[in-house]
Amino acid sequence: MVNEALRRVPNDNGDKYIDEVNQIRDSLAVMGNNSTAFSLPQPHLQRTKLCEMEDKELEPLYVKRREQLKQLVASIVKPKIVQGRTLNGKDFVSFLEQILEALNKGEIPSTGSLVEIFNKAILERCLKVYREKMDGLGLPVPVDKLQEVHEVANGEARILFDKQHFGKHHAAQSVLKLDDEIKKVYRNFLLANEYQSSKLCEARFSECEDKMDHLQVLKLPSMAKFNAGFTHCNQSFVKDCVGPAKENYERRMSKMLAKSRALFIKEYNNKLFNWLVTFSLVMVVIGRFVIKFFLLEIVAWVMFIFLETYTRMFWSAESLYYNPAWHIIVSSWETIVYSPILDLDRWAIPIVIMLAFAVLYWRCLGGKRRRGRGSLLPLYKNSYKNSSRPRSD
């Protein structure tokens, strides 16, 4: 029976599964060369009472064959050495009972379980290949990109499994288990991708929200600066926010930017009007008392009178915002306040301080130099009073 079970099966079609099973048969045949076997008939039909029956109640042929088995065992048996100690008969019986108990519990592997263990090791290697391929993809990424890499990694894992697995029946079970494990790992990557995407998009959304809030409180209101910050914020968000959370955050971003723009435009004209009135008064003072430039003083007065009288004549400042002259003033203001080279909202205070020092230097040291140069030349009236020369007609 053993030799028949371990005989190689013909494989005329070159089936790789049959070749693999034949290899296992050849390996087990090495252990089966020293086996001796013969059949034992059934001792009695009442199997539940076998342990209570005497030999005279059992099948005579069974008793005869059993005695032959005892003689055979006695003739070939050798002392069993376990952990360096020779077992006596009582210990050997106890050892056999332990082996039988382990076999009944499935603790000692059979041929099928050995194949399962081998395929399990292959399955772990395939999962490792899949994880390494997926780990190489830095999260977060778009869902279609994650799906594409998943399909490639899954294909590589299946190719590796098909090359190395044993057994057709056990391989089918291992393939199902491999698919289940890959699905679990893929679900974990989907959850991690959603978390990383939400985390990244939330950070970019908060940055843009803070930037829009900062642009609402500019010292010198500038529509050009607001538009530049608005565009930069939107572009950086579209570039950096990736993954499954992008669609949701894009809707939030659009609402926030639209709200910020509407609020800025609402306050822009009022703030600019107040700044222009203040600016015109400052220019009046500078033109009269600092640089004493009459034309500058006149232009500043004209600007101040225009701003004040227009609003008084038409009862509201809003009507001024539709005047063509106002658009010219706004264009000039935007050109002065903000440009890619100079941002007066950031550098206004340092520039004012430097100009103040320059004016003080010019007024103080420049005036002394002029007085000094005038004293070096003799004045006409002094020379006239001190001259002893008689005046000619």
Description:
By secondary structure, the protein is mostly helical. It contains 13 helices and two strands. It has helices at residues 2-5, 16-32, 60-76, 89-105, 111-135, 143-164, 168-216, 223-240, 246-290, 294-314, 324-337, 344-375, 380-386, and strands at residues 81-82, 85-86. Strands 1-2 form a two-stranded antiparallel sheet. The longest helix is centred in the middle third of the chain and has 49 residues, at 168-216. It is rod-shaped. The termini are far apart.
Shape: rod-shaped
Sheet with the most strands: spatial strand order = 1-2
Distance from N terminus to C terminus (CA atoms, Å) equals 164 Å
Radius of gyration: 51 Å
Number of helices, counting only DSSP H or I runs of 4 residues or more? 13
Secondary structural class:
mainly alpha
Number of strands: 2
Write down the secondary-structure element order: HHHEEHHHHHHHHHH
Low-pLDDT stretches are: 374-387
Helix-residue proportion: over 70%
